[in-house]
Amino acid sequence: MSEGTSALVSTGWMWIAVRVHGSHERHLHKPLSWFGSYLRWLPVVCISWITAVYAIRHGIWSAAGRTYEHPSWGFVVVYESLKLTYGAGLWLGVLFGIASYGQWQLQWQRLLRTQEALAEAQLARLQGQLRPHFLFNALNTVSALMHTDVARADRLVAALGDLLRISLRSNEHEMTPLAEELRTLGLYAGIMLERFRDRVTLDWQTDQALLATPVPALLLQPLLENVFKHGVEPTVAHVRITVSVRREAGSVELVIGNSGFMLAPEQADGVGLRNCRERLSIIYGNTASLLVHNEGDGVAARVLIPLPDTIQ
Amino acid sequence: MIRVVIADDEAPAREKLERWVAEQPDVTVVGSAEDGLSAAQHIDQLHPDLAFLDIQMPTLSGIQVAAQLEPSSAPLIVFVTAFDEHAVKAFEINAVDYLLKPYDLDRFTHTMQRVRQRLHASQSGAMAVAVGRTQSAGCERLLVPEGERLQLIDAASVEWLQADDNYVHVHTAARTYLLRRTLQDLLSQLGDQRFVRVHKSTAVNLGFVGSLTPLFKGDYEIHLRNGRILRLSRRYRDALFTRMGQ
Fold first, then answer.
1. pTM
2. Which residue of A165, A179, A282, B223 shows the fewest CB atoms closer than 10 Å?
């Protein structure tokens, strides 16, 4: 009979422990605080458990016309508290095991997904950078320029070489000073401007104070590629491109804007944009952003990257 | 003299071709275009013997330009492209001339050699036109003359076609265009997805057919949605019924 009441009340507490385990999951990676977050309730559990169990026992016994005999209250409190601590420890151990396993599985799946996405992104980025169409056309421009302006052809070959070297060298996670990123963008732009001579003008507006800011390497090139692909190549009209870098509150704002063509409503993002977003979220979580929208008579791709504390 | 039109949207690429073409003793450049539409215009007005068409161009790709030409009168065409795996595969199968960027003087000279042989054998650009048509599936747009200029109209907006000797009247809701083409050739360009022949001299856009009324001897009247009535001759009846039944 007395075991029955203990089992009943214990089960109640165990059930509550299971019900609340969701709110303790964020402590799972630190077992001490996980156990701590439960065990701080132990005094309450002990007192209420002893009160409940002994009240029930006294009630049942007196209902049967008998008196429930037990050692002194001091002994009962200490003895039952020790037993409860032991029992709670065991039960929490089991719960911890189950919750950890669930969490581990979740994270494992998340990791697999991330790895897949990364591999895809890497592939897309490689394809994007070394787009054969760009390379062959650039080479053809060089071969055309050689006959009219050897010095310019020479500069173009050097720019192409630099660009290839940078593309091959940099990896997904590499950060580079903004000055270097802009120089790389300039190499790419220089080649494209030579190809589409007379059809494009490019303006740079750069806040010199920000040039040392670290940014993800080769983040901007796909955005400029988009401008050429969707804005310059399909039209004979003149296109004005602006690359601007300025400080916006605690962030660096990088904008690549163009005149002359607008986004179609609900136009889906291409591989280039998806890839940029992916990289930003891997590196900065949700503190960086990339927005592409119609602005004035053209499109602006706007990247916001948080400034590191040292520069702020 | 071999008269040449050159079309490429990138100035350096165009200048390179112009330079090398001009260096050939028996060749002269009669026109140079920066986009597909003006390339088509040049070909239409200047009747060159040879056209170098870049594939990636604004308004119309080189392949689409070729698809719009009339095979028997089309100039010889040399496609020029930087990288277009699928197109190149099609060229190889059909032995159409093409230049891959970047190309050197030897390769260019070789191409010119072949062009001379073909011109000598009085070949036209029919092969290139055929390749262009298969590569630009069904031709969603049609090049029509608008005064002195050419313009593109949506093939879906064409209601019906009417042959008139060596010309075709292209009827849209807004107006009628006169093309110097045969009906058969125009139909082969437009593909058989949308248009079907109903008479020796007429073809309709299936999307504009309203109803059919039987006449004597198996002929029918076709009532178009715009109110116009066309004759469906027995000869083309079964083909139309099969198409409408689908």
1. 0.69
2. A165
The 10 Å Cβ neighbour count of residue B202 is 21
B142 in Cβ contact with B152 (< 8 Å) = yes
What confidence score (pLDDT) does residue B171 get? Answer: 93
What confidence category does residue A33 fall into, taking pLDDT thresholds of 50, 70 and 90?
A: confident
User: How many angstroms separate the CA of residue B30 from the nearest CA in chain A?
Assistant: 20
3-state class (DSSP) for residue A85: helix
Q: Do B102 and A196 touch (CB under 8 A)?
A: no
Mutate to test the interface with A, among B41, B80, B83, B100 (most CBs of A within 10 A): B83
- Asked if A140 and B82 come within 8 Å (Cβ–Cβ), the reply is yes
Query: In chain A, whose CA is at the least distance from the CA of B83?
Result: A133
Q: Are the beta carbons of A185 and A217 closer than 8 angstroms?
A: no
**Residue pointed to by tokens 């065409």:** B77
C-alpha–C-alpha distance, residues A131 and A191, integer Å: 14
Type of residue found at A158: A
- Give the C-alpha separation, B170 to B178, whole Å: 6
* Facing B56 at nearest CB: one of A144, A147, A233: A233
| Contacts for A6 with CB less than 8 Å, ≥ 6 apart | A53
A236 and B104: CB-CB below 8 Å? no
Separation CA B218–CA A267 (nearest Å): 51
Residues B152-168: tens digit of each pLDDT: 888 889 999 999 988 99
Mutate to test the interface with B, among A140, A192, A198 (most CBs of B within 10 A): A140
Q: CB contact, 8 Å: B54 with chain A?
A: no
Contact B83 A132 (CB under 8 A): yes
- CB–CB of B158/B174 below 8 Å? no
Instruction: Please state, in angstroms and rounded to a whole number, the distance separating the CA atoms of residues B240 and B238.
Output: 5
Report pLDDT digits (tens) over A69-105.
Answer: 888 888 888 988 898 889 888 988 998 888 889 888 9
CA–CA separation, B139 and B189 (whole Å): 7
Strands (DSSP E) along B13-139, which ranges?
A: 27-33, 50-54, 76-81, 97-100
DSSP state of A111: H
Closest Cα in chain A to B100: A136
Residue A131: closest CA among chain B residues belongs to which residue? B83
| Residue pair A233/B57 in contact by the 8 Å Cβ criterion | no
Give chain B positions within 8 Å (CB) of A196: 9-11
- A204 closest CA partner among A235, A228, A227, A183: A183
80-119 of B, contacting A, C-beta below 8 A: 82-83, 100-104
Cα distances (angstroms) measured from residue B111 to each of A281, B25, B103, B104: 51, 15, 11, 11
User: Which residue bears the tokens 């008269």?
Assistant: B3
